[in-house]
Design brief:
Layout: E1 12-16, H1 19-29, E2 33-39, H2 45-49, E3 58-65, E4 68-77, E5 91-95, H3 99-108, E6 112-113, E7 117-120, E8 126-133, E9 139-145
Parallel strand pairs: 1-4, 5-9
Antiparallel strand pairs: 2-3, 3-4, 6-8, 7-8, 8-9
């Protein structure tokens, strides 16, 4: 972080039940690139902050987007994850080049795709937005400004 900078966004992180399957969605559908993956140490801070039982094993993957290194992470937990409570409490939001291609790929991959909505920005621009839930219910909202 540069001097005088109060905050710098590092990355978002979702818990997943199957890292390899999650990578199908995040890399194969959304276009992230796998920067690295590793088994987490038994004293990883993730155990505390995510309240993961210390008997579980966890794996960690960091993903990059073109020109945006290491902006997303996935943490695999070895025991089944409970269903996420509704309403959802978080999402990542991605500007994508081709909404239709991402939606089709997400459906083909077996992810839940929500009905498309019209996006109206604060400054009057219009676009498309679509919510997609991954295999564990983590929400991604994709969008594209049209005009």
């Amino acid at each position: 972080m540069s001097e005088g900078q109060r905050v710098r966004f590092q990355r978002a992180n979702f818990l997943v039940s199957d890292l390899d399957r999650a990578l199908v969605f995040y890399c194969g559908v959304l276009g992230f690139e796998l920067a690295f993956a590793k088994d987490s140490a038994t004293d990883s801070y993730s155990y505390s902050v995510f309240e993961i039982d210390p008997v579980d094993t966890i794996r960690f993957a960091v993903l990059s987007a073109p020109g945006q290194p290491r902006v997303m992470a996935l943490t695999e937990v070895s025991t089944p994850l409970p269903e996420l409570p509704m309403p959802r409490r978080s999402a990542i939001v991605l500007d994508v080049a081709d909404v239709d291609a991402v939606v089709a790929a997400a459906r083909d991959a077996g992810c839940h795709v929500y009905e498309e909505g019209e996006l109206l920005t604060r400054d009057g621009r219009r676009g498309r937005e679509v919510g997609i839930a991954d295999y564990d219910g983590n929400l991604t909202v994709i969008y594209k400004i049209i005009s």
